Amino acid sequence: MAPQRRREPPFPPCASLVADEDSQPTPDCPLKKLPGHYYVAPADLHRCLASQLNVSRLNDIFPCLWFAGRPGYTRPLHRQRLVQRSIIITEQTDLHLVWYDTQIYIKPLPPFLLCHEFYSRHICGSPLYADACGLLQSYTKLVQHESDYRIAIELGLLPSGVSWAQWSTFTVQVRPAMVSKRYEYGELRLFRLNLIYRFFLGHWICGYHLRYTNFNSFFSSNFTWPLVTFAYLTTMLNAMQVILTSGKQDRIVDGAFFGAGLVVVVAILGTLFAVAIFFVALLLYNLVKALRKPGRTRSLDTEAQEKCA
Q: Where are the alpha helices (DSSP H) in the chain?
């Protein structure tokens, strides 16, 4: 059996845009300083990298991702604005390039992914290697032109010290590398991801990502379609009533219209009952979440800054 080839960063050492700042712990600050001014305890390094790179929730539903997006399709940043999408900054990596209506979530590029030494030392031997390469390569598609670069700097998506000349030189030196399954696809529809998580994985309440902060916005966004459907059905029933009162129909037509009216009534009552059940379930879910004992909620970055203060 041939020995496995050692994985390498997807760019050469001379292309690094961020200096290596991987300092060792000291008595005054028992933390490591990572490229991009991240502070983290040595024991928490892998957990910190996982919080910045992990996309396992999307990898787990890879066979269904065809329903949510197209392979390799990622618009540059200027095209996102051209189609009137607002860019929402997120630190949740599995929301990167997920869009809904006129909004798209984009995660800022972690500076340590632009450092060859850090990449080689901490990522090449990690299970997160494919996630890291995928995130980095997604930025070679997002920032292709100087107009994209200006948008990225304006929104803080790229490190502020990186110039357009440096970035354009860097992107042409990024080599093809193994990427996680999620990054075989580009932009993904949030609505369809929610459907996949609700109907295939049973996450009925939150789906993949619950973007609402109150019941009013949730129900107005998700349950408008029954109102429109009922409006069409009401018009159809009114037309049936006109036909029946004309006296020119036979018993077959009478039976068909009666059956159609009965189906509509049952559908309306069933939908109202389902909405009521869903509302109660959502209310109980939020109540349990609110009453649950709060856990460790502070981020790694916050803890690190407090330790080094």
A: 45-53, 56-59, 77-82, 116-118, 129-142, 146-155, 164-173, 190-199, 215-222, 224-245, 251-291, 300-308
CB-CB contact of 65 with 58 (8 Å): yes
| CA–CA separation, 70 and 66 (whole Å) | 6
What is residue 301's predicted lDDT score, i.e. its pLDDT?
47
Q: Is the Cα dihedral 147, 153, 158, 159 positive or negative?
A: positive
Expressed in angstroms, the distance from the first to the final Cα of the chain is: 52
Please say whether the beta carbons of 178 and 172 come within 8 A.
Answer: no
Q: What is the pTM of this model?
A: 0.73
**How distant is the alpha carbon of residue 138 from its chain centre?**
14
pLDDT tens, residue by residue, 40-64 = 777 788 888 998 999 999 999 999 9
67, 192 in Cβ contact below 8 A? Answer: yes
What does the alpha-carbon distance between residue 214 and residue 203 come to, in Å, rounded to a whole number? 19
- Spatial strand order of the sheet with 103-106 comes to 69-71, 185-189, 98-100, 103-106, 86-89
- The rounded distance, in Å, linking the Cα atoms of 149 and 164 is 7
pLDDT greater than 90 at residue 83: yes
**pLDDT tens-digit readout, 97-129:** 999 989 999 999 999 999 998 899 889 988 999
Dihedral sign (CA 172, 178, 180, 182): positive
